[in-house]
Amino acid sequence: MKRTSGFIAVGAAALAYLVAVTQRSTMGTASLLAAERFHTNAQQLASLAVMQIFVYAVMQIPVGFLLDRFGSRSLLIFGALTMGSGQIAVAFSDNLSQAVVGRLLVGLGDAFTFISMIRLINGWYSGRRASQLQQWIGNLGQLGQVLSAVPFGAVLGLMGWQSAFLGIAAASFLAAILVYAAVQNERVASGEKPHPLDFKNIREQFVTNLANPGTRFAFWVHFSTQSAATVFVLLWGFPFLERAEGLDKPLASTLISSMVFVGIAMGLFYGWLCGAHPHLRYRLVVSVSLIVAGAWAVVLLWPTVAPLWLIATLVAILGGAGPASMIAFDFSKAYTPIQRLGSANGIVNIGGFLATLITMYLVGVSLDILHGWRVQQLAAGGHAASVGLYDLEAFRIAMWIQILVILVGVVGLRREHRILSRLHPAEPATQL
């Protein structure tokens, strides 16, 4: 009975997460249309995604405490209802401010979904099975990127802005109904009681989690591995591929969608590796981070428009990097008791989305600055030629920001690994 209940509960939560990823990714598909609809520059366009990610990141810690107190079911329902409401606001938005409010609601609801699913998995399963399920379900959920790029993108093109966003809102409300009907909260060990939700307890639990080098180590794992793929999918991938590299929209959509299938395949591999060879996880996350940074450096240094094989290689590497961020939660559960796992994972999950937020916004600011400077240079030289906001020369400079962010993450990761190795020299998580 427990196996059946756990399968149903985790399965319903996985579908809710799939819908959440779809909601999260819709603005990436609609980014160029949004720029035209709201007459935005690059920084303003970035604000649509950045504010969504900002709310998501800020809410991770309070959501973690709510999760430890109330369990996954209520939070999954609230998240789905909130995301659906946000998409309705986006559907009827006539200006950028209204759209930002809608995306804030999407980010708020999204914040309740992922760590609730992770907590549910670790409540119903343990050990190697929990590690594998985290990887597999987390990466299967990325099929939501395909749903946002293909069916949502098709509806957007055929039926328009309002119909597309109302349709995706309806999917979120259906997910809330499914969770209500099928999800049972995770089982907890005998004698464990939820922490009271008061300021003193929240402060003490936050300090305890932050003082745990395992939590900090997992934070930097997530920071280093997650941001590059998320930035590409949520905002800058389509402008880079279409405007800078000159690919047509169907090919760009195909490439971005392919990241999901690469991610699923790599997620299966990572799930097996985490269960069978846990001592290799640290090497893996460092290697993945440096390979992503190296791949972007090659593309940005290419003297002309990058050949399709190189772009496809970059996209495949990004697709394989995203699932590596799930290893952070494998480390987290190894060093955190279940009654504090929700709040600890809230801190961990901030890592990748903080890196994403920083990268998204600074790339947008850089594109605007470069555009203004190049326009002035042409005007000073008496040239009347126009300069594209999203052309290759601008992206070649602006996208170096994400490489710097990744390298910052690797430095933090290595520092916390040294601390953890001294404290737990025999643990597989710390071994080289």
N to C succession of SSEs:
HHHHHHHHHHHHHHHHHHH
- What percent strand? under 5%
| Tally of strands | 0
How would you sum up the global shape? Answer: globular
The CATH C-level name is Mainly Alpha
Question: What is the average per-residue confidence, as pLDDT, rounded to a whole number?
Answer: 83
Helix content: over 70%
Low-confidence stretches: none
CATH topology: Growth Hormone, Chain: A
Largest sheet: none
Number of domains: 1
**Any idea what the radius of gyration is?**
21 Å
CATH architecture title: Up-down Bundle
Number of helices: 19
CATH superfamily: MFS general substrate transporter like domains
Secondary-structure class: mainly alpha
Provide the fold topology.
Layout: H1 2-29, H2 31-38, H3 42-70, H4 72-91, H5 96-111, H6 114-124, H7 127-140, H8 143-149, H9 151-159, H10 161-182, H11 199-211, H12 213-244, H13 249-276, H14 281-301, H15 308-321, H16 327-335, H17 341-380, H18 392-398, H19 400-423
Helix pairs in contact: 1-4, 1-5, 1-6, 1-8, 1-10, 1-12, 3-4, 3-5, 3-17, 4-5, 4-6, 4-10, 6-7, 6-17, 7-13, 8-9, 8-13, 9-10, 12-13, 12-14, 12-16, 12-17, 12-19, 13-15, 14-15, 14-19, 16-17, 17-18, 17-19
